[in-house]
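Data availability excerpt. The first of two example chains:
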Amino acid sequence: MSWLWPFSPARRDPSSPQTAAADPALRAHFLQFLDYVEPPRFFKPSEVAQMLTPAELANLGFEDWREALLGVRVIGWEYREFGDCEVLVYDRSGAKGKGKEGEEASEGKWVVLDEGVGWMEVQGGVRFRRTRTALDGDDWD
């Protein structure tokens, strides 16, 4: 009888990024990647969000893993404040040469984001990795 009452009582209102970041399941998936991805390798927020099961997504009020991406970013920034995580952004400023039809080359590298930049200020993709201090002094650069 969805035509009569199209709203499902089981569906929650979608969570805000901050509320999603407090979800134990999303936080556990983030920590799993933070623990098991060995630096200098890094991981994407989408990899964390795709680990959510349909039940975990429903608990957050989400239908698709993409809705959890901002919550993953909030978690990453939180762990950056604790000194356990680095946030990386793609820097094309050092790209040399030209691409197709005179466009700039898309070659660049992932660089650690400045501490003063908030999660809402970053446009484009980000990556996360453990910090050096979380590795007990291993040098991986």
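And the second chain:
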Amino acid sequence: MNFKALSAFSAFVVVALAAPQGETPLTVSIQSETAPQTCGYVVLSASGGTKPYTFTIHDAAAPFAQIGDSYGPTVEDPLVWVGLKVPTGTNAFFQAVDADGHVAATNSIVFIEGPTDDCL
């Protein structure tokens, strides 16, 4: 077996072992019709994994630091998260962690100006 094949096989084994066994993988998505707003709200939906879920917001640039508060643990679905303490223009993503520690994230999205910035 050559090195490339061994590397590909090793990566597959690591992913297969890290995936939750016997359950639906955790996913999270943004359900809002518009981009999240500073001091506004977002609608998120999480499924799979093991409830409850805890949600966080992270900067889309390395080192992917958490921004603002976390939400949860919760079993709400969909979740309406209000009072997002993220400045306008921030490129960020939402992350969900289930009760077993499995992690899922949305694509990154840029926060738009909200009705106020008093929450910052």
